Structure formats: structure tokens, C-alpha cells
Amino acid sequence: LYRLQEVDLELDRIKGRLDEIKAILSESQELDQARIELEESLAHLKEAEAESRSAERFVASQRSKIEETDSKLYGGSITSPKELEDLQLEAMSLRRHLGTLEDRLLEAMMR
What we know:
The protein has helices at residues 2-74, 81-110. Helix 1 (2-74) runs antiparallel to helix 2 (81-110). It is built from two helices and no strands. It is rod-shaped, with a radius of gyration of 34 Å.
């Protein structure tokens, strides 16, 4: 009877240890899942940063084109009314496109 009690106590101890191990493994699985989610988030972050840099380059390029067009428009080197009108229309178009690019940049930054 004493031996049976010892075996029963040992069995309880082993069951308790098994529960501890299961808890540790569960935490390990949760940690693995958290790592996977972190890696996915980092990948999305890198993608968003790349999109943001690309949008910034497009915005800078567009601003440069606008400055160049404005320089021609107001520099006095062009005297033809038709050319001035064409440049003015081009400048307006460039500014509209710049607005679109800036909106995209803002969206990329908000991700």
C-alpha cells in the first residue's frame, strides 16, 4: 500500500511537470507566432518605406519640372504669346499632377 502511494505521488509529480512543459511549449508557440507576425510587419514596413521614397522622388522631380517651366514662363526669354500660353497650360498640368503625387506620398506615409 505504501509503494502504491509512492507511485501515485510520483505520477502526480510527473503530471504536474508535464503540465509545466505543455505551458512552456504553448508559450513557445505563441512566441513563434509573434515572431512570424513581426517579420510580416517588418516586410510591410520595408515595402511602405520603399513606396514612400519612390513617391518622394516623383514629387521632387515634378517640383523640378514646375520650377523649370516657371523659369521659362517668367524668365522673359519667350516672347511668343502662343508659346507662353502653352507653357502656362503645361505648368497648370504639372501642378495638378504634383497634387496627385503628393496625395500618393501622404498615403504611403500613413501606411
